[in-house]
Specification:
alpha+beta; binds 2-acetamido-2-deoxy-beta-D-glucopyranose; 9-stranded mixed sheet; Rossmann fold; transmembrane helix; membrane; single chain
């Protein structure tokens, strides 16, 4: 698969992870690449069989704002695989202190083409230096999600059921409101999903395009708290499958 993770680093919205798949049929995506963003060697990373890119996407040239991105290609035939855009969070799963240490290493920043302007302060996970105003955290993502879904692109939103920062009940409620707004019917009533003979969470689906899932036993950072369940969920998503409704699922990996 293609996978793009865009991490906004905003305080209030980091727990809701939105995953979007786009099929790039017959399009030679690789040719459009910013080759200067190719990550040649990431310090400490074992030898990998896929290509990875990192750099900045300009958002607002006037104010000089850009978003950092990290993009990973599928190991085989990436041009035939769906594109996943991962908003709010993503798969950084290591511990807070190790992460802070690693991403502040000059050779890591160089490899990732990050911090090109040599910022006068350290990288940290939640920074107050990006000029967010309190009110920015109130900006709704729903209109954006609505536009994506109206283009027939499947969207999955998931929450850890032990997330005490953004409890899943609120997210579940606004997703239901979004479904209502889109005039979607419930195509999958709220039910458990399974992984390795256990209930791995709950899931519901609207209009065959909008899915909300919880991951049992995960807190704010789902892939960190429940890596196997998170991976299984992601793998169902990229294969265009629903989460398993029983414990005997063919490739329950
Ligand atoms: C950016 O790089 C400079 C060194 O060139 C370093 O002192 C600073 O901590 C880095 N800042 C961030 C945000 O990565
Ligand atoms: C954000 O919205 C909530 C709920 O409507 C409100 O209580 C809060 O004051 C708002 N925060 C800001 C900074 O506007
Ligand atoms: C919503 O869907 C129903 C039936 O599925 C249809 O009758 C109705 O016209 C739709 N409303 C809007 C606003 O699209
Ligand atoms: C369980 O999932 C399978 C595969 O998606 C589906 O064929 C089956 O109808 C589902 N069973 C129930 C009870 O929902």
């Amino acid at each position: 698969m293609f996978q793009i993770m865009v991490s906004y680093g905003a305080l209030a919205v980091t727990m809701v992870v939105v995953v979007v798949t786009v099929q790039w049929l017959g399009c030679n995506f690789a040719e459009g690449y910013p080759e200067e963003d190719l990550v040649v060697r990431l310090p400490g990373q074992p030898k990998v069989l896929f290509r990875q890119y990192a750099g900045y996407v300009e958002v607002d040239t006037k104010t000089g704002r850009s978003l950092f991105y990290y993009f990973v290609e599928a190991a085989t035939q990436p041009e035939t695989k769906p594109l996943t855009l991962w908003l709010n969070g993503g798969v950084d799963v290591c511990m807070t202190y190790e992460r802070k240490f690693y991403f502040n290493l000059p050779e890591v920043q160089h490899a990732l083409h990050a911090n090109r302007t040599r910022l006068p302060y350290e990288w940290s996970m939640c920074t107050s230096r990006v000029n967010y105003r309190g009110i920015d955290s109130n900006i709704s993502m729903l209109p954006l999600l609505k536009r994506i879904i109206q283009n027939k692109t499947p969207v999955w939103i998931f929450s850890g059921d032990q997330d005490s920062i953004i409890p899943f009940l609120g997210t579940r409620t606004i997703i239901r409101e979004l479904a209502h707004d889109l005039n979607f019917s419930t195509t999958l009533p709220y039910r458990h999903w399974y992984h390795r003979d256990q209930v791995a969470g709950w899931v519901t689906e609207y209009g065959k395009l909008l899915t909300f899932a919880t991951v049992r036993g995960a807190a704010h950072m789902v892939p960190y708290g429940q890596p196997a369940r998170a991976l299984h969920m992601f793998s169902c998503f990229v294969r265009g499958r629903r989460l398993p409704n029983n414990t005997h699922y063919p490739d329950d990996g």
